[in-house]
Specification:
The chain contains 5 helices and 8 strands. It is of the alpha+beta class and 153 residues long.
């Protein structure tokens, strides 16, 4: 699993050292590296190992050929996918087009989300993290209220 949050600096060649824990989690695939593509949840990169790719493939295959949702997921995942191998120092090189798309120029934040992770521009991450924290707080309060109401009924 990909867990925790790390701030990392991109070097001049757009390389980033992938946290050791993430390299170990991704090493269950057919190559030593990770797969990244533009996230459809937020303005960041989403990545993971073979397990994440397999999950998206299964989702795609559940949908009928030609279905607009299937096409959009295929376009985003299959069409946007970049395979990045680890070098001897545990680094990957982020594609220039993805760096430009998400303004990844200097410091980035790598966030573990279980079977996947996201790579964010540092300030965009801070804003998104706060919004997610508030959404989680409100959602959990609503969930607990629904649980209490169900017990009373």
């Amino acid at each position: 699993m990909f867990l925790s949050t790390f701030e990392k600096q991109l070097d001049a060649k757009r390389r980033i050292v992938v946290p050791q824990e993430f390299r170990a989690a991704a090493s269950s695939g057919p190559f030593e590296g990770i797969m990244c593509f533009p996230s459809f949840e937020a303005d960041c990169l989403e990545g993971g190992g073979q397990a994440l790719f397999n999950r998206y493939e299964a989702l795609i295959e559940e949908l009928p050929f030609g279905d607009p949702l299937r096409t959009s997921i295929e376009f985003s995942v299959r069409g946007g996918l970049s395979r990045m191998s680890f070098d001897s120092a545990g680094r990957i090189t982020l594609p220039e087009t993805l760096c430009e798309q998400f303004n990844l120029t200097d410091w980035v934040v790598v966030v573990g989300l279980g079977e996947r992770f996201q790579i964010w521009e540092r300030e965009a991450f801070r804003v998104y993290r706060e919004a997610q924290r508030l959404a989680a707080r409100a959602g959990l309060a609503e969930h607990r209220a629904q649980q209490r109401a169900a017990k009373v009924a």
